[in-house]
Amino acid sequence: YEELQDTAGRHNDDVRNAKHEISELNRHVQKLKAEIEGVKKQCANLKGKIAEAEDQGELALKDAKQKLAELEDALQKTKQEMARQLKEYQQLMNVKLSLDIEIATYRKLLEGEEYRLANDAADAVNI
After folding, report:
1. Mean pLDDT score, 93-115
2. Residue 95 and residue 89: Cα distance in Å, rounded?
């Protein structure tokens, strides 16, 4: 009977130790589950931030492309305006050159007339 009591006591201690070990393992499992949930939340949060950053990047890229198109359009218009102004400048320079030639011609005619009048006056005084 004592041997059965000793065996029962040992089994009782083994069962108590097993229950204690199971309890410790359950606490460890609960702790790991909580950590896993925390990591899953962090992962979901990071995925959300990545998606948001991608959206912002796409919007920034779209905006940059639009601004580039606007700048290229403005550059083209400026080039056209510059070509128009250059053509107008060349036309004005041609008009100026024509006027300079005409002024030089009239100046020569005037100088020739003054010389002729001066000679006529000198001849009239000499007579």
Report:
1. 96
2. 10
In this predicted structure, the answer to whether residue 126 has a pLDDT above a threshold of 80 is no
Enter the tokens of residue 45: 């949060």
- For 48, the token pair is 């959300």
What radius of gyration, in Å, describes the C-alpha atoms of the chain? 53
- Find the Cα–Cα–Cα–Cα dihedral 78, 81, 86, 91, rounded to 10°: 180
Phi and psi torsions of 44, nearest 5°: -65, -40
Mean pLDDT of 82-93: 98
Q: Output the pTM of the full model.
A: 0.53
Q: How far apart are CA 42 and CA 44, in angstroms?
A: 5
Closest among 3, 1, 7 to 15, alpha carbons compared: 7
Span 21-38, pLDDT tens digits: 999 999 999 999 999 999
